[in-house]
Amino acid sequence: MAVEQQDWAQVVAAATRAPSIHNTQPWRFRATADRLDVFFDPGRALPVLDPTARQQVISCGIAVEFAVVALAAQGKAAEVDLLPDPGDPDHLAVLRVTGAAATGADDAALATAIERRHTVRAPFLPRAVPQELIDRIQVEAGRFGTWVKPITREEEEVATVFLLSRAEEIEQSDPAYLAELESWMRTEPGAVDGVPVEAVPSDDPQARPSNWLIRDFVVGSRERADFLPGQDPDAPPPEVERPAVVLLGTDEDDRDDWLMAGRALARALLIVTVDGVAASPLTQALDWPSTRSRLQSRLSLVGHPQMLLRMGYPPDLPDGAVSGRRPVAEVLDFG
C-alpha cells in the first residue's frame, strides 16, 4: 500500500512530538512508498548524561510508536521491524505499511493525544490518579514485553526518593554535566529543540511541596546552596503531596529492549493523556550506573529499570511552556 509524501510528512510530524531527554530529538527518518526507516542521530548525542545512548534510543522508540499511532489514525496498518540492519546499530526501525485498517475511536483518541501530550514539571494538583489507569498501562506495557511497577510501598518509595536525591547531587557536582545541560537550555522564543526556560519551574526543586525531586535544569544559574539529600531509607517519608510514580523496565538491557521500552512508554503516555493525566520523567537515578544498580537492588527488580515516571493532573500552564520541535523537512528524507 503506497503512502503519499504528504501523508508521510504528517506521520513524521506526529513522531517528532515524542518526548526526548533534554528535547534533543535524536532521530532521522527516510520514507519510501510503503516504508518508513527510523535512525538514531549520533550528532545530537549526550555523551556525559547518556554515554550509551540508552535514554535517547528509548526516545526514538517513543517516536516509532507515535508513527504507528499516526498511521493507524490514517487507516493504515503497519508492521515494525526493530534493528533491521545488524551492520548499522543506528538504523533503529522499519515501519512497513501492510494495508488498510479500520480506524476506531481509540485510534483517533490516541492520535489526538499526541498533539496534546507534553511534559509537565510543575507540581500536580492534589487529585489521585485512578488505579484503573495504572492497571491499563501495566497491561499495555506487557504487549511490548516490558513491565510497569507502581512505586507504592513505603520502603520502596523512600529508597527511590533517596537515590533520586543522591543522583541529583552527583549531577550538580559534575562540571561536564552542567555544561552539557546548559547547552540544551533555550531562552530564545520559538526554539525548535532543547528545553525552554519557560517550561522549567523557577523555584528550587528541593523546596517544592513534593516527595519526588525533578531535575534541576537551571542549577548552573542559581546561587549554589548546600545540597539537602533525600530522606534516609530508614527514616519515615515526609508528609508531602505525592503523585503516582511508576517504574517501567525490561528483562534485558540492549538497544532492542530500549526501543521496546520506548514503544511501551509511548502507549502509556498517550493513554494517560486521553484521561487528562500528565507525566514527567524522574530519570536522575537511572542516569548513573551506580544509582541505577542500587535502585535495581533496593527494589528487588528482576530486570532492568528504564524509565521512572511521575504522573498526575496538571495545573494550567503558562504560554510558551511547551517545548518546540524541529521542522519535518529537517529530519525527513524521501528516497
From TrEMBL:
InterPro entries from the UniProt entry: Nitroreductase-like (IPR000415), Nitroreductase/BluB (IPR050627)
Lineage: Bacteria, Bacillati, Actinomycetota, Actinomycetes, Geodermatophilales
Top-level division of the source organism's lineage: Bacteria
Database matches in Gene3D superfamilies: NADH Oxidase
Signal peptide: none
Name of this chain's protein: Nitroreductase family protein
